[in-house]
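RESIDUES AND SHAPES:
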Amino acid sequence: MNWWVMLPTAAGVVVGVIGYLMNRSILEMDEKIDKANIRIDEISVKLDQSNAHLEKVVNDLWKEFYDYKDKATDEFVKKTDFVHVTSDIGKKLDRVYDILLDLKGKVH
């Protein structure tokens, strides 16, 4: 048999094998891409759920903070007010002490 006859046949077989392998590789890549897209969709859903949960938690924390802030203004005393009241009490105690000393001096 003549080798010129075998050459196109061999080339056709090589091109066919290469075509088959490339087609199989492309199909495998498409399958992996599809799986990755499904996984991305699943992660996206979980991320949306997590974001919604975190948003709720943050909103609850802000609400709790503002409630505490309102409660603090009603139930706690400012430092300046405390100092002012205690100094007034101190002045009144000093006056009472002076009066007691005067009374002690008058009794003796």
